[in-house]
Write a structure and sequence with these properties.
about 170 residues; alpha+beta; four-stranded mixed β-sheet; two-stranded antiparallel ribbon; 4 helices; about 25% helix; disordered N terminus
Length: about 170
């Protein structure tokens, strides 16, 4: 069985999928009827994405159609930022939504997703990820770039992002 569903006492569940089955499982899940989520609720017409997770899964499952696919391949998703840090006094530095690796060079994209409007603090989040990865054993010497994907990016945030190279 490529994945299993475990129900917890809270009534919520989670799915465990072996690494080699993540993308096939996501593709399959995209075909599911999620109408059961709205049981006993009025009919809700949803356009677009309702969560960051939806955007992330859509990007992962349709990676070949993204503007990144020509040069980058998916390295991982929900990548722990403290991975490979030497003597890190801070634990739980966060998780990168999508980390992509250049197919030809030692270069990575740190992709941060915001479902609605990105605020200025997301830039601190991305630069923090870049700084932590730059200090890691695994990424030392690699070119690291930040990418922000959001429904709306206010001019102030966009200007600051460009200044930071994001």
């Amino acid at each position: 069985i490529p994945f299993s569903f475990e129900k917890r006492n809270t009534g919520s569940g989670h799915m465990e999928v072996s690494r080699d089955q993540v993308l096939p499982t996501i593709r399959k899940m995209l075909t599911f009827d999620h109408g059961v989520l709205y049981k006993n609720k009025s009919s809700i017409a949803v356009k677009g994405f309702s969560t960051e997770y939806d955007i992330q899964r859509s990007l992962l499952s349709s990676w070949p159609k993204t503007p990144f696919a020509g040069n980058y391949e998916i390295f991982g998703d929900e990548v722990s930022v403290d991975l490979g840090l030497r003597n890190s006094s801070r634990k739980n530095l966060g998780r990168i939504d999508i980390l992509a690796k250049n197919k030809k060079r030692d270069e990575y994209l740190v992709i941060e997703i915001k479902r609605a409007e990105a605020n200025i603090t997301v830039l601190d989040q991305i630069t923090g990820y870049l700084s932590a990865l730059n200090k890691s054993n695994a990424m030392r010497g690699a070119l690291l770039r930040g990418v922000l994907i959001a429904e709306r990016i206010p001019k102030r945030v966009l200007t600051s992002a460009k200044r930071l190279g994001i």
